[in-house]
Write a structure and sequence with these properties.
Two copies of one chain form a homodimer. By secondary structure, chain A is α/β, with parallel strands linked by helices. Chain A has helices at residues 34-42, 63-70, 153-168, 198-204, 213-221, 230-240, 256-261, 273-278, 292-299, 313-325, 338-343, 356-365, 377-382, 396-399, 417-428, 440-448, and strands at residues 2-8, 13-20, 23-27, 46-51, 73-76, 88-89, 95-98, 101-107, 116-122, 131-135, 138-139, 142-143, 175-178, 196-197, 266-269, 285-286, 306-310, 331-336, 353-354, 369-373, 389-390, 408-412, 434-437. In chain A, the strands form five sheets. A six-stranded mixed beta sheet of chain A has the order 1-2-3-4-5-6, covered by helices on one side. A six-stranded mixed beta sheet of chain A has the order 7-8-9-10-13-14. In chain A, strands 19-23-22-20-21 form a five-stranded parallel beta sheet. Chains A and B meet through strand 14 and helix 4 of A and strand 14 and helix 4 of B.
């Protein structure tokens, strides 16, 4: 018997391979899904069922591709916004045997209308569920977002409350297997810990301490969540069924000349923020490789062509994985070698990093200068530097137009990482007077203490 | 935060790496312990604590080696038979911080006097344990053996009963992390499933359904368990502290001449049973590579020299891992190439495999012939072929002397695998008239149905 978590870094997406008696099921596969078949066959198992907990917003579902590879049946909950063309519909109480394991459907709407949890039973030890795949309904330390139906906000928050009661009714003994861990855009309150049970959540999850339905609804509807534009593309693909990922998951290597000639819609520097600040190719924006899953979808539109600049070939391969998982397949290629390019006399642009002393000085004296805070609204509401302005980093995708290219901007966030993305975006839009507050709010707080 | 199970196949030994905030702990490390350091450092963690649940009988503890590699402190329960020279003693209620995790000591004697369980808390979600490392006290579907103190059998079974109540008192929500899974010599009733909780065990584990202490003691003291002789060596090493494993975990490759000249105490054929039956080097015994952990310790004594015969080099490497984990380090080398040796005219010995029809015929007619059943006593008591005799495969290490080398023996077990080990052992002791019932009790039952 096998139950293995397959974690997708960046997206903090958790999928599961569960098998017994020669048979296996996958819960919420990602797009590059050969990994499930390889792991299953290495354990002598064939994948027969693919369970989706809901129509994902943040990544391309691998269910249709995995079904094509294996002949497995895809199961999906009722009431999606459009038919999920590659899946059969399951209903409350439906049961599926995977060897001696049994998977039982629990309709748990709220996060989405079609949301399903799957309770896991071992028929050899059949009394109560041993686990439950909770999708985006229940996480370790948090519960699902309920902001996807703006006109039905209170209704769907109430539905989630009811669904959580159904999950709790499985009993304290059930291990929970959620679809996301900390770092996901699908929740900001998740625990760092990725293992828990219904019982441990019942007594420790802050959201489950609220026993009044209306209070829960009030709280959920007061939450702030962001929806990057690429969510719409994911929703569409995950009803129609996305395409198989590229067979080769490494971008073509580009020479500097090829890079300069390729005319990509976006030139994306995926090196670490401090490398970008020290020198980057003119016109390039900054999306550090590990931040691609959370931020690429704010700035890149469907079908746009991308050229990458990286520190090494492994970064390029990792970037391609991240991009393909959110359907940004149009990667023309990647270039490695910024320092060698500089050594050949190629012009480099810099984005200075400044420290707290300099920020303080400018706050007191500077003219034609703005300290622009790009953290999210919850962070901003917790504390803010007096005199700074606020635009969320993702919202700069459109709101950069509100800014004045002849003005001097210092970008800040919590540490300097998101500020570099913001600075790079503005630089790629033609802003010349840009710098980054290294350390940002963290350094500011340390100065105050 | 990290919690990873490191499984040792063959021994079905489960150890755990748990970390948070730059710090990590290992629970019950195995002897080849670099894996824990590599996994910890890959996650940005340094191992500071090594927790032993008890003095293991079935494998060499890696605690002293891992402590030497990392500087970590080894913690062990009170009341071992001799001082555990490499460990500090912990007591009920002692607490250790690993980043934001807390590990709390629970004295749980019964399996051994020094047995400890370790409850795991997340200080960010502090209400009740999120998990418990149960060692050999509580498994998925079974509880620990209590046969290690023959003169105190009822007392220690009672101690285990009390210890299990203390584990149950942690609450249904706690995930259990036992030291063994199905296939281990430390329990025969374990579930195939390796994930469970205190709650799921409380309502499903057959042993935990017994709520009367005396009934539990009666049941535990009526169980049959085997103690291979190498257990004594492990017990000794795990108090004194074993040596580091060899740096290179592949045996030296031997030519046929080197193999013939090496004068090893045991020539061990680690190929699969049916390959051994078809032809093996004279004098070799059969211990298929995946059966080494369970059966080598019956036939090999401390310090004896071993030469291996394998199908390929990977088998040799796997065999060395298995052997080193139970302190059989004196591996002279390994030979690959039985078929090429035969092609050079090297003499091969065969051990015929016979079928049910032949066994039936012999049961009716054969003279000077014995059907020898080598299954364990519980299997034998469940069903047996009339006219067969019984000696447990492991007990042939001594009891082969009771047999008559001029008599014809057919070996049987449940399938034919252990029968091949028994046949090979007798062949290596000079028995000439040996064959194997292929399919054994399984085939016999299929014939009856």
């Amino acid at each position: 018997m096998l139950l293995e978590k397959i974690k997708t870094p960046g997206l903090s997406h958790l999928s599961y391979l569960v098998g017994s008696g020669g048979q296996a099921a996958v819960i919420d596969p990602r797009r590059d899904c050969a990994i499930y078949v390889e792991k299953a066959r290495a354990a002598g198992l064939e994948i027969t069922h693919i369970f989706e907990t809901h129509r994902n917003e943040d990544l391309v579902s691998g269910a249709p591709m995995l079904a094509a590879m294996t002949g497995a049946t895809v199961l999906h909950g009722p009431n999606p916004e459009q038919p999920v063309v590659y899946a059969e519909t399951v209903r409350n109480g439906d049961c599926f045997s995977i060897g001696q394991l049994e998977i039982r459907v629990l309709e748990t709407p709220g996060h989405t209308d079609d949301h399903i949890a799957y309770a896991l039973f071992d028929t050899a030890y059949p009394d109560r569920a041993v686990g439950v795949f909770t999708g985006d309904a229940l996480f370790v330390g948090d519960v699902g977002r309920t902001d996807f139906y703006p006109e039905r906000r209170r209704e769907v928050a109430g539905l989630l409350y009811d669904s959580l009661q159904d999950i709790l009714a499985l009993g304290d003994q059930a291990i929970i297997y959620p679809a996301h861990g900390a770092g996901s855009v699908c929740g900001s309150g998740m625990a760092e810990r990725e293992f828990s049970t219904v019982g441990h959540e019942r007594i420790n999850n802050p959201r489950l301490q609220i026993t009044d339905r209306e209070t829960f609804i009030d709280l959920k509807t007061s939450e702030n969540h962001y929806q990057p534009p690429y969510f719409r593309l994911m929703e569409h693909l995950n009803m129609e069924g996305g395409e198989a990922p590229p067979v080769v998951m490494r971008p073509r290597n580009l020479s500097l000349k090829q890079l300069n000639d390729c005319d990509a819609d976006h030139l994306i520097d995926i090196r670490e923020p401090m490398a970008y600040a020290s020198g980057h190719l003119p016109g390039s924006m900054s999306l550090p490789v590990n931040m691609l899953p959370a931020f690429a979808g704010w700035f890149i539109e469907e079908g746009q062509s991308l050229a990458l600049v990286a520190s090494n070939e492994e970064q390029l391969a990792t970037a391609m994985e991240h991009l393909v998982r959110i359907a940004f397949d149009n990667v023309i290629g990647g270039y490695v070698g910024v320092v060698p390019a500089a050594a050949k006399g190629e012009k480099m642009q810099q984005t200075p990093m400044i420290d707290t002393t300099e920020v303080e000085s400018r706050l007191n004296n500077a003219q034609n200068w703005t300290l622009l805070d790009v953290r999210d609204i919850d962070e901003r509401n917790t504390n803010a530097i007096e005199g700074s302005q606020h635009i969320y980093v993702g919202h700069l995708n459109e709101r950069w137009r509100e800014l004045n290219p002849s003005r001097h901007y210092t970008l800040m966030c919590a540490s300097g990482a998101r500020a570099t993305i913001a600075a790079g975006w503005l630089a790629s839009r033609g802003f010349d007077h840009i710098d980054i507050y290294l350390g940002s709010m963290g350094a500011w707080q340390a100065m105050l203490e």
